[in-house]
Write a structure and sequence with these properties.
Radius of gyration: 19 Å
Number of strands: 0
Order of helices and strands: HHHHHHHHH
Helix content: over 70%
Shape: elongated
Strand content: under 5%
Distance between the termini: 54 Å
Number of helices: 9
Length: about 230
């Protein structure tokens, strides 16, 4: 099914058909404003860990290409501004919530994925140091949601967190949007393959978590065989 088919189906179903887990649906319904809201929620509010930040940014870049046949045509400057306006204040908000609420915020959640993300975020901070971990976390789903409040709860200095979250946020948002735009500009009729492309982006974004899981299982196996 191509994007024109999906757009026609969405229009037939009406505004209630918006799927917050689907980048194309969000962009078709809310445009650039949706990008800002989703990225703010994903990076600043613990309830936003399930939102599709990576695929949203990449898809938005594709839909900025002149002549695309997707559900909506977006303006590249507007998309870039919306992405930055959502991701940077979002991360700072998460940090401030962590400073005030600490680990109590995570303790209230019953989400296993969220707690696993918190453990991974704390491990990144310990292994790579504050600066590198803050930048790397932007590219790991769930971790980019949890690391910001974790940094606040662990009393990472604001003078360290703020500049590095800005750098990481700019690289993440601008990089993914321009990557989508570059692909759309170089491949004719790329919108026809948008669904598999977005699926690939999601898989790539999950790769760091998969590698970490495999590494941990390998470590446990080695420890178990050594006894």
């Amino acid at each position: 099914m191509t994007w024109p088919d999906l757009a026609a189906a969405a229009q037939a179903l009406g505004p209630q058909a918006v799927n917050v887990l689907d980048a194309g649906s969000l962009l078709s319904a809310f445009g650039a404003l949706g990008i800002a809201v989703v990225l703010f929620a994903e990076t600043g509010l613990l309830v936003g860990f399930f939102l599709p930040g990576d695929s949203l940014l990449f898809t938005a870049g594709l839909l900025c290409v002149p002549g695309n046949h997707g559900p909506v045509h977006l303006s590249l400057p507007q998309v870039l501004c919306a992405a930055v306006a959502g991701a940077l204040p979002g991360a700072q908000t998460g940090y401030l919530l962590g400073r005030r609420g600490g680990r109590a915020l995570l303790a209230r959640s019953r989400s296993r994925k969220l707690h696993e993300g918190a453990a991974k975020a704390e491990e990144l901070l310990e292994r790579y140091g504050h600066a590198k971990a803050i930048v790397l976390a932007r590219f790991v789903p769930i971790v980019r949601t949890v690391l910001n409040p974790m940094a606040g709860a662990l009393n990472v200095p604001a003078r360290v967190f703020t500049p590095w979250q800005v750098i990481g946020g700019l690289v993440w948002t601008v990089g993914l949007v321009l990557a989508g735009y570059a692909l759309g500009s170089s491949v004719p009729n790329v919108d026809r393959y948008l669904l598999p492309i977005v699926a690939l982006v999601v898989l790539v974004s999950l790769a760091p978590l998969a590698v970490e899981v495999i590494r941990r299982r390998g470590g446990r196996t080695s420890n178990g065989s050594s006894h």
